[in-house]
Structures are given as C-alpha cells and as structure tokens.
Amino acid sequence: MESTVSVSKGVFLFPNGFQNSKTLSKKKTNLLFCKLFQEECWYLTYRKNWEAIKTKLNELNQRSYSVLLNDIVNYIKQFYGSEEAFMLEGIIPSATLLTGVSQPDHVSQFDALINIIKDEISPHVAIVNSQDSLSLKHIVENMVWQLIGNDLKNDEECDVLSTKHKLKKSQCTMKTLKTWYHSKYTNESTNKKKKSISTKTLVIVIPDFESFNCHLLQDFVMIISSYISSLPIVLVFGVATSVSALHKSFPYEVSSKLLIKVFHSHSSAVYMNQVLEDIFLTHTVPFHLSGKAFELLTDVFLFYDFSVKGLVQSIKYCMMDHFYGDNTKVLCCKREDLEEAILNLSPNDLESIRQLKSFRPYLEKQDCRTKISLFEDDQYFRDALYKELMKLHDYLYSFYLCVKLLSTLIKDIPNNLLGKTVREVYTKCATECITDTPSFKECMQLLSFQSQIKIVDTITGALKLLNSHLQSVSPIKPLQATPKKNNNNTDKVFAHRELGESFAKTVRVHLMTFLRQLENANTEASISTAMDTDTNDNVENVPGSRYKLKEKLLKATRVEKIQSEFEMIRCRFISYLEEMFAKGLQPPHTQTFHEIMFFSDISNVKKHIVGAPRGALHTALSDPAHYLQCSCCRLPSPESVAGTLPDVCLAYKLHRECGKHINLYDWLQAFAAVVKPGENDEQRHHDPIIQSRFTRAVAELQFLGFIKSSKRKTDHVMRLTW
Amino acid sequence: MDEIYSKVVCRENQLNDLFNLFGDDNEPLPCSIFISGSMATGKTLCLQTVLNYLSYKHVFVDCIECYSSKIMFENILSALNDEDEDVKCENFMDFINCLNRLQNNYEPIVIVFDRVERLRNMDQNLLPVLLKLREFCKLNICTILVTHLIFENFNFKFGVREPIKLYFPNYNKEELFRIIFLYQKSFVQHLLNHFDIEDETTELIEKPELFANFLNAFLSVFYRPCRDLIELKHMARLNFIKYCEPIIKGEIQSNDLTKLWRHISPILKTSLELLYLRISDMRQFKPSPGKENSESLYAKEFCLEKTLKDELSSTKTFAQSFELPYFAKYLLIAAYLASYNPPKEDKRLFMKNHGKQRKQMRQIKAKAKINEKLSTQLGPKVFTLDRLLAIFYAILEDKIGLTSNLLAQIATLVELKLIAGSKEIDLDTAKYKCIVGYDFISAIAQTVGFNIRKYLYDFI
Ligand SMILES: Nc1ncnc2c1ncn2[C@@H]1O[C@H](COP(=O)(O)OP(=O)(O)OP(=O)(O)O)[C@@H](O)[C@H]1O
Ligand SMILES: [Mg+2]
Hints:
Chain B: Keywords: ATP-binding, DNA replication, Nucleotide-binding, Nucleus. The complex is a heterodimer. By secondary structure, chain A is mainly alpha-helical. Among the domains of chain A are: 88-187 and 197-266, Rossmann fold, CATH 3.40.50; 434-584, no CATH class; 612-719, Arc Repressor Mutant, subunit A, CATH 1.10.10. Chain A is built from 31 helices and ten strands. In chain A, a hairpin with a 6-residue loop joins strand 9 and strand 10. In chain A, helix 28 (647-655) packs across helix 31 (688-704). Chain A is globular. Chain B is α/β, with parallel strands linked by helices. Chain B folds into three domains: 2-168, Rossmann fold; 173-318, no CATH class; 326-459, no CATH class. Helix content of chain B is 52%, strand content 9%. At the A-B interface, helix 2, helix 4, helix 7, helix 8 and helix 9 of A face helix 4, helix 9, helix 12, helix 14 and helix 16 of B. The complex binds adenosine-5'-triphosphate and magnesium ion. Adenosine-5'-triphosphate (ATP) binds at residues 8-11, 37, 39-45, 148, 179, 182, 229-230 of chain B.
C-alpha cells in the first residue's frame, strides 16, 4: 500500500502508534489502513478479492500438506506409544523432512506441522531456529524454555503453584526439563494409575538444518541422546537439499544416535503449478494477469528463487498496483456484484472508462447514433458497459476452459512446442492469438497422428475436465434468478451469448459425439484391417513374383484408403478442435474493457518485484534528477557534470573517470574545480568547506562500497567497481 | 557377583580391576581413575554395574551438556543431595563448600565424568583440580574420567596428580558374538512385535541355535567393515528379521542352514551398503496377518531402500535429488569455476577472442603440467564476489540485470552449504569458496546443458 509518494526505494516507517502489548499494536495498524482507505471503494474491492484468494490458498495448502503431515504424525506417534517399543539405548527417533530449497515457503509448512502435532500428539513442541542458536547454551535454553514455558502458559489458570516458580531462561537446562517432565507425568500417572495417562512425547523441530553450525547440532544430538532413556523425545529435521546433508554434517558417532526416517515434500515447481492452476488460472478470481506479467512472475520463480510465497506476494503486489487509487477497478469483481458496482460509478469514473484503449475498437463498430449516446448518455453507457463486462466474464470462462482443454489434449504429445503445463500454455495463449501460430498448428497435426486408443484416452481426459469445470460453476448460477433493475436487459445479454457456459456445454456435446464415433470407428477399422491382413496372408502364400508383389503393394495403399473411416472422423475432430480453439482462445487484449480485469503494466511492477540495487544506485548517483526530480540537477547528458549536483554524485562521476587507484589530491582538485569553477586553482582546494564536503562525499562512497582505502600507496584509494 | 559377570561378558579383567579399586568399605577410594577406550566398549556399562552393585553414592556427568561449569556443579550437587532442593552454585569455591556441607560419615562417593575431553577447553584449571578433588574436601570421594582419548592427549601440565589408568580394548569377533548373543531375547521379541506369527514358528524362532547361526553368518560379512557394537547390533536387528522371513512364511525349514545362508548372504551384502546410514526402514504400521500384504510391503520397502542407497552413495544422484533455480545453478557453476581455476587464466578461459595466445601457452605449459597436480584435485581456492559475478555473466548466455534476487541466491547457496562464506554480501570483503565436488557440479551442469569441462583449466 503506497500511502506515501516515495522518491526512492526504501522502507518507510508508518507511525502506527506502537504500544507495548502486541495485540494492541496489531489493531492499530489495521486501523491506520482502514482510516486511510476504508472509504475508497477500490480498496474494498481489492480487499474482497484478496481475501478470496487467501482463503483459497489456505485451503490448497491444507490439502497439499495434509498427506505428508499425517505421515509424519503417524510416524512420530508410533514411538513411545502404548506398547513401549523395543527402543535401543540412546537412539533418538527422528524424522527428516526434505523441504526443497525455497526457504520462505518452509515457514508455513512447519507451522502447519507444529499445529497438527500439537493437536494430535502432544502439546510439548519446541521449534529451534538457527538464527537464535548461536551456542549450545542458546539451543538448550531455547528448547527447554519453549517446552516448559508453553506448558506453564496452559496451566496458568488451574495450577497456581507451578506458576509461582517463575522460570528464568538461564535456569532452563536439561536437568530442569527432566525434573519438570517427571513431576508432570510420573506423579500424575501414579495418582491416576487407572486412567493410565500415556506420557506425552516431546517433539523438537529443527526447520533449517543446513544453516546450523553442525558442531552445535552434533553436541545437541549427543545431549538429547543421553536423556532419551528418561525423556521421550523425537526430533524433526527440515533439510533443504537431501539426506546426504545430514550424513555429511554428522560423524558416525552422532548419526549412530539417530534413527532417521525420510519424508519428501512436494517439489516446489509442482506446488507452484498447483497454486497457479487452482487459484489464479481460473475464471473464479476476477483479477487476472496478462501473459507478459504472468511470464515475468513465473520466470522470477523458476530462475531465481523457487519460492511460492514470493510468487504469491508478487501477485499481491500486482493486485495492489492494479487497484490502487483507481475507482474504475471496482468493476473487477465477481459477476454477481457487477451490477451494483456499475450503478455506483460516478460520472468521472465513467469518463475514465471511456478513455480506455480497448473501448476504441468497440466504438468503431457501432453506428453514429449509438456512438453519441455512448458518450452523452451515462445510463446508456452503463448498460453497454454491463453488457460488455458480462461478455468479458463469459469470455474468461471459456478462455480458461480452452486453455485447460488444450493443455490436456497436448500433454502427451512428444516434444510439443506449447509446453506441458497449463501455465506455459496460458502464457502462450494470453500473449498472442495462439491458433494462428505455427506451433499450434504443429501440435494439431501431431494430434492427428495419434492412435485410436490414445485419442480416445485424451478425449475422455478432456471430458472429465470439462465436467468438473461445469460443476464448479454451478453455484454461481443463481445470478440469473436475481434480476434487479434492468431485468429485460439481462435477458438480452444472455440471449446472444456465444461463449461462457453455453459454449462449454456445446463443446461437451461435441466431444461426446466425437468420442462415441471414434470408439465405434475404432472397431470397424480394426475389422477391416483384419480382413486385409487375411488377404495379404493369402497373397504371401502364393509363390512370390514381381507382379504379385506389385499388386500387393498397390493393395496395401488401397487398404489405407479403405481404412480411413476412423481417420476421417479424426480429421473432422481435429478441424473441430481448431475451430473451437479459434473461437475460445482469442487473446485477452482483443477484448473490450480487458484493462479492467487484466493487469498488464509490468514495466512499472518489474522495478519493484525484481529489484536491482546496483542499477538503482548507479542511476541515483549519475542522474540524481531521476529520483530527486529537481530542476537544478537536470543534465544535458548522463556523463556531464555540474556544480549543482549533490556532492556524492559529483564525486562518483569524477571517480568513474579514474583508473584502479585514485589519487585523493587529484580527485579533490577536480572536485573543487567543478564546485567553484571561478576561483583560481590554489585557493579553492584550501577552502575548508570544500575539503570537508569532499571528505564526506568520499566517506559516503566508501560506505556504499565503491572505493576502499589502499595500503599500497599513500593518499590513494582503490576503486572496487567497473 | 556371578550375575554381573553373566550380564557383562568379556570384561572380566576390567570388572575385576574396578572391584579391586573400589574394593573394601573401610579403605579410602582411589583419588582419581582415568578410563579410556573407543566407542561402545562397555565403559559406561561396567562402571554402572559396578557402582550399582556396590551401591555407592555416585553421579554420572555428561560433559557435553556442561556448557558452563555452573551446570556441571549444580548437576553433581543436586544428585548427591538427598533432599530435593534447588542448589545454587556459581563457581568452584561454592562447589567445594557445598560438598563439605554434605552430611556423610566418610561414605564413598564416586563422580563419573563421561566424555571428559569436552572439559579440556573449558577452564584451564578445571581438570587438574577435578583430578585431586579429594584434597579439597573432607570426603571419601573419587573422580572417574571417561573418554575416548588416551591420557597423553590431555596435555596435563607437569606435576599433575596422575590418575590410575584403565583401558578398555576393542572387542574381537568372538567377543562381539558373545555380547550380541546376550540380546537374543530382545531380538526375538522385536521380531514378534512386528509380525503376527503362529505359535509353532515362534518356538522355532526362539531357538538359540537359529540365532547363533544367523549371527555367525552376519558377523562373517560385517565384522570386517565394522567393529562397532552398537552399529552391529542395529544392523543385526534389521537383518535378523529378513533372516527369519522365509521361516515365517514356511518357505525354508528352520534347520536348513545352507538354504538360509543362501537366502541371507545377498541381503547382507546389500545392507552392508546401508551401514552407518541409519535410515529407518521401520514399517509405519504393523502389517496385517495376510502374507501377501507383508510381501508387497517388503517389495516396496526394498525399492525404497535401493533408491535411498543410490541417492546416498553417489553424489551425482545427490545433485539430482533436489532442484535449484536456474540462475542458482549457474551461480554454483560459476563458483566452482572460480574456485578451481587460477585467476590469471580467467581471461583466457572466458573471453571470446583468445585464439592464438592459447596455443602458445599450451605448448609452454604442456610439460609443466604433467608434473603439476590437477587443481580440481587440490582443494577449492577462495574467490571474491566480483570474480564470481564476472564469471557468472561470462558463462550465462542471456543478459540479465544484477538484481537483488540474484544476490539473494548467493546467500541461499551459502545457506545450503554449497558455497562457504559469509551470508552478508559485501563488495569489499566477501570471500567465498565452492564446497561441492566435481561429480556434483558436472551433474548440475548437465541439467542446464552446460559443458563444464570446456571451462576448467585442468581439462584444456
Ligand atoms: N561386555 C558387554 N556385555 C554386554 N553388553 C555390552 C558389553 N559391552 C557393551 N555392551 C553393550 O553396548 C552398549 C554400549 O556400551 P557403553 O555405553 O558402555 O559403551 P561406552 O564405552 O560407554 O561408549 P561411549 O564411549 O560411546 O560412551 C551398552 O549399552 C551395552 O548394551
Ligand atoms: Mg559411555
């Protein structure tokens, strides 16, 4: 949320009325944003959209983690369970979770893990991060503190006595843990022997194994192992690379104290595809990314960090950029809310919608009278807008459907050019009219070479997808039953719908007929081939002559032609596909008012998402007017210098002309010459003001990492950049 | 007494020594004892049984845990104190005072410091003082130091009071056999816990001869690579299950030794490769009585074991076992090149127009190089961030900006322990080192279709 107009990139501290209590300060932050934006309807729409996405994301996370987490939980459960297993002396059961290299994503995963452990196994969970584990002491104290501390908090109400022993962190040793645990569980179980309270496992989670100093961890494991006979402890390691990391950093002496079970989590690329396909590449979310923007974000993911969280945050940023301060974006909402949103638009907003680029082609298609009324009559324009936006929704519906259909159809084609995942196909479809491209044609051709079984398979797959797509949309249906004001209007709108749900339904009907036909054709064709092979065999039995052979070959070619029943249908099928995709896969930027729902301003966002600190620094120093926007620093060319520039910039520019070693005296003189061009040489660099300004500029450059003092030559500094 | 000797086998000499040292109630204890011996040679076990048998007051202190001497002192004191109360003890003086306050009529007290080598780098004086603890207090106290190292490794200063030394040698094959055989019951129990077996077969399996046979076979394979009792016990436990499997299924008679041997020997050989890895193959759930079920489980498990083994044994699969982002791969390659190429050759390797010079250089170098060790086989050299980035941009085809994301990747690589260095990126001082091997890097390079040999000085 850019509530400041910032000149440079940086972190801005919002005075949010910080208070000591954490909950209070949180409320305050919320209040601040509420105060700032709450009346703005674009903000409300934004928030609504984002909330929707967030809940979906959470659901998805839950679904994708649950299997893995349950496995881990079951694994942990089996130790120290009812039948007091055969444990070997001093061996710690441990689970190793291979998490993949994107570390930002791990946090949520481990949070989920801890929650599920708390629910299902035991309340005693400690999470030991590498940041706060500088020494063994820290690790142990931290762990014990968490294990005991959490418990104290729970007990606070019922157990006044225990809270009287306020625990100091320095008192948290393994011994304290042991006595605490025994007083808690052995006493209890002797008291309530009949209830047979099973003792609770202590789970210690180490989420970032690689970042630990391995000697510390070794010692830690050794300590734990000497307590394992009296404390039921299970370790959970999060390893980003692979199991060998564990073996590499533990010598045998330590690893012999562990029993390791490995769990693999999803690869992050798979996870990203899932997130994108299920959440962002659907018609259900009103906010969409244009092909270019989408490509940028996925590239950042694939090339740089593999972080799904980062990806989602970038999308969020795009959303903020999309909505920020623009009331027309209120229209970027669900179908149901559209009508109301349009009614609430002010004439100004309408005017800015008329300015949209994609309105132009639409206008040109209309006759004179409508043109005028579109401009003059706000009500008329509203109606038209509504109609067009409904069309846009329909378009989106069928567009995503087609994207998904296309990607399932070509999924199995060897070396296809459109890509294997929905996301790749989407990027292609959203940037250009895919049906015109050679790669699409090639794909269709390859599709037309598929065998009967294969093609039947792909069609069934596509049908399955279609059905689920149709099902998912049904809850939205009631909108047709809630006509509010322009009742007749909606009817009209739905009357000439050629895309959208009805499109999906016709596609389904067609696919089903094709499927049936192809299946039937399949059997017929095989019969005919069987007959042919029969005759062929006969021919072969006859002693061969050249003539016969020729005849056979001829026959074979004719057989091909006879067989073409199946092929004919296949051919028809392919051309149907081509036709259908041509209709459904028009790129978004051809649609009227696509700007409202599609975000395409990447150049602006790119700077923020893919930050280039050095580049920014360079521009700031060589062309300060770019950021300062003052008239005094305007330069005729980026290389030129002027006395009005800030001192650092000046020093920076001058130093760029030097070699590896810079003589400070020369530099000072050059500096003085620019700052005070009038005076004579001798005097100006004796001026203490100039000298101190220069010294400060040099110090700043050193701080920024451009130069460094050199030991080899006195009065010289070294350049560090080129 | 006999009970002890049957519980702790093959350690008669050491047990006798200990008994002699602690011997009679009315004699004072020796001042200090130093016990050394490698892992799992029964040091702790012997001490524990002897002390328990004599029912002396004693404490075991694990020195790893004592990251501050305060913890050590408090642990000792609270264990010696009969009453349950919090002891506070900041330093050695306090400790002595507290000890002297203990009410006991010159009853023997033994303090065992396990893994005492840890105390060497704590406080200079601590160990010598512990060695003559008795001189500081009026107690019949004995300190026992237990360690893997020999006495000379402690570099005690001249004049320290020399403790009595005991040495626990490693076990030989027969001794290992006897010791593991002691645990036959628990092995069988473990097996029975995991399978539902009919009574007759249970009887068969419980026969000690069967286990003895298995153990012979097992040790004949494992004794050579591994002498460690704990690991042997662990591996034996895993393999005993497999040994008994055909008997449970009724495929092999329990007395058909040759068949059993033929069955187990390949299994032992494969599990030899899992030695020391400690990857659990424990079933998550007890297999149901149905035989097919457990069979399929085994098949699956075997596959899993195999892949795991592969993954662990070769660095190549290690490299493929996890994904790195595209540029991170290139950064890693660049780091490797920077580590293993001499900096002065950079120009030649990475500039496009180096043609002629290269030939001459080659001829001159050719002779010298034969003697020279391959620098890929010498360790990695340190390089600066500048050089890393320069090489990175030289080997990368597409032009990309130097973005913060890119710089963050370097930190990630450091975090993943693929590059050694500081996590902060600092133009001036940052020095890095690539710490992955050639196999690893060539596997990575393969995934991005980059020919790394072309750029390695050694291979030109
Ligand atoms: N002589 C023996 N008889 C029976 N069991 C033995 C014998 N020696 C070792 N063991 C078994 O091996 C295990 C490890 O022995 P112990 O803990 O005494 O070794 P250690 O020498 O103290 O090893 P570390 O130096 O690692 O502490 C014991 O728990 C015991 O089960
Ligand atoms: Mg020991």
